[in-house]
Here is the input.
Amino acid sequence: MTDIAIHPEKLRDAVAAALGDKLRDITLALGEVTVLVAAADYLAAMEILRSAPQCRFEQLMDLCGVDYSTYAEVGTDGPRYAVVSHLLSVSLNQRVRVKVFCPDDDFPVIPSVTEIWSGANWFEREAFDLYGIVFDGHNDLRRILTDYGFIGHPFRKDFPLSGHVEMRYDPELRRVVYEPVTIEPREITPRIIREDNYGGLH
Here is the structure.
């Protein structure tokens, strides 16, 4: 185990030194280092994190979209969509989280990192499908979880909870059919049971 893996402060400092002016912010909380980079520097920063001797993050462990529109401290004063990645260095036994905000809320676009880590392929397709984030340079950016005819992006905070259309297989027509949603929206209120002498109270 490296000294950096034992002391996350040293990892923070090493990553900050490697990224230089491409770093917008770096934080250390709960033993985890989080890096914030600008969209314009995203691809170059990820290449540095992959190849710099003190970083060597060979593996992209996860990549996801985030909709910050209902986060009071972010969504009301800043870009709405972000892409968050978790990187792992097997050789140096260290991890880092990278966050980048899409500059345009109406058409969120960010460069694809599939040329750096091929494992980003399905992660980026999922973020595109669920959040509508477009990954420029991805060679097969299409939906991966929803149906081919699906409209909208279901993880966006303003997407309706029940949707408007449902699909089913019709055995008589021998094909998939689309129909208006038949589920009535309802509110589930938990049942509260009160005992007369609960906890010794009267």
